[in-house]
Amino acid sequence: MHRLWLVQIAPNSTPPRAARYESVWRQKNPALHVDYLRSRDAEELIRRHYPAFLRSYRSLQTGVERADFVRYLAIHRYGGVYADDDVVPIMPIGRWLPTFGWRTTPRNALVVGVERARPPLLAQFVFASVPRHPLLWAVAEEVHARVQRLTAAHRFSVLERTGPLAWTSAILRFIDSHAAPRDENRSVVDETQGRLIQLEKDGQQWSLLVLPYRAFGVNRAHQTQLRKEPSTQHLVHHQFLGSWKSNEYWHARQQLPSALSSPSPEGIR
């Protein structure tokens, strides 16, 4: 997973912040190949490989929603690590899983982290996957359906339509439908080393590795009972510098859990 994707649905030049943090990624990971997916590239990716989603993508009015949608498709197509341009690596990518006791990368894995436990919210500002993981396709289909169904009624609709609520709902639903029969524990939250969930789709074996909150999610703005220590297991620092975000955004992020309640399967907490 030594390919990093940074999405810039804006000008064709690299913003200074992205360039600064890209240098940190490269320092931590000398062999890392960094790809910038800009507006024109994003639309071409969807037109060429995901034409069924093109109309929904073009209907999105904000750059942040387009960046949400295309990150799922880019990693589905090519694999690698996705990170928002304000995510700073603390630890080299190659040490992420060994830090939590995973000596080898689980086969055909999507790696995500917990942002909140109850109800569960999974971070989508950084994640990693092999190409063609069916869970990412399920997320893209979820976003496509929500864009058709939900209007941009308020400035935080992005959370529900394309962002972390859509992401988490799709993942929980996929677990409910495709967790391997032998995997009886389907909880996505494990405070120790994370939770590995075995999945089956069309006769093929896949996996989902959900790292604990302290891997990706720790932020001093969070009010959470989740375990933040040891700090030596913090893998990245997300600074939440998006210009559309504010203290009001944090309130909305905490007050929008209801969108998770209906699709979440019984037993997932």
Automatic annotation (TrEMBL):
<dbReference type="GO" id="GO:0006487">
    <property type="term" value="P:protein N-linked glycosylation"/>
</dbReference>
<protein>
    <recommendedName>
        <fullName>Alpha-1,4-N-acetylglucosaminyltransferase</fullName>
    </recommendedName>
</protein>
<dbReference type="InterPro" id="IPR007577">
    <property type="entry name" value="GlycoTrfase_DXD_sugar-bd_CS"/>
</dbReference>
<dbReference type="InterPro" id="IPR039367">
    <property type="entry name" value="Och1-like"/>
</dbReference>
<dbReference type="GO" id="GO:0000009">
    <property type="term" value="F:alpha-1,6-mannosyltransferase activity"/>
</dbReference>
<dbReference type="Pfam" id="PF04488">
    <property type="entry name" value="Gly_transf_sug"/>
</dbReference>
<dbReference type="GO" id="GO:0000136">
    <property type="term" value="C:mannan polymerase complex"/>
</dbReference>
<dbReference type="InterPro" id="IPR029044">
    <property type="entry name" value="Nucleotide-diphossugar_trans"/>
</dbReference>
